UniProtKB/TrEMBL annotation:
The lineage of its organism: Bacteria, Pseudomonadati, Pseudomonadota, Gammaproteobacteria, Alteromonadales. This is Polyprenyl synthetase. It comes from the Bacteria. PANTHER family: GERANYLGERANYL PYROPHOSPHATE SYNTHASE, SHORT CHAIN ISOPRENYL DIPHOSPHATE SYNTHASE. GO terms for biological process: isoprenoid biosynthetic process. InterPro entries: Isoprenoid_synthase_dom_sf (IPR008949), Polyprenyl_synt (IPR000092), Polyprenyl_synt_CS (IPR033749). Its cofactor is Mg(2+). Gene3D superfamilies: Farnesyl Diphosphate Synthase (1.10.600.10). Keywords: Magnesium, Metal-binding, Transferase. It comes from Alteromonas hispanica.
Amino acid sequence: MNKSKVKSTSKINTRMMEALEKALFLSVSENTAACYHLQSGGSRTRAKLCLDASNALMLNEKMALSLSCCVELLHNASLVHDDLQDNDAERRGRASVWSRFGKDIALCAGDLMLSKAYGALSDIDEINKLPALLRCVSDSVSKTIEGQCKDIHQQCKSLSDFELIAAEKSGPLLQLSLALPLIAANYESEVERASEAIRQFAIAYQIADDMNDWRADLANGQLNIVNLLARESDHSQAIELAKTRAQYLLKRCELELKELPANCGASAIEACQQLFKAVCRSQNE
């Protein structure tokens, strides 16, 4: 019986993901640059987390699709703007939007997806839930912008500075994948717990990423936790310290997610466990 239930859920998610893709492209169909970016692929991780949480919390499909579309458009808008600010010429193995269409067009394409993310919420029938949902999205976008500004200026002198930048740059938009379904399901009191868990995941993810890129970031003068810690030790010790911190954060994240209602953080827990295993494997290499 359990196997049957899992298979049914998977089938629903596949169908919903197809509907999501259609909604994403339809929302930006008249903008070539935005469509080009969406066509480059991507894991749609945030949308999947949102759909799974919505399903666990028994939200209807229309609500789940609106929330997931909002989350995914916000994420992709941030990627287009991030590539522009970092002068990254490639994204997902091909030319980034600004590299292909120019910086002005890329800025507009990102702005369009940001606008359409808010527009996705207009499909929600339960009007009484819109104020809280819109407030949550607006606050998350504002925090992301603040984190991006800090990252650009690299005002980082300590581990706490690094974690603040990592959390504010990557965490808020990822947090929406759980926060929006919780609000829609009348669990607004659980949003803080979910957001703190995802905050820890975002920091751990950045640490894991930095452990792979510390040499390149050192050469390019980019912010990297390993190189920051190496100021007080050597790089071997810095890597071990970074790994230990990432593992600790991921364990705390998993514990917090397990406390969420209706097991709505199950997919996030799985992602957390996968990242933990990746960090452990890197420890033996």
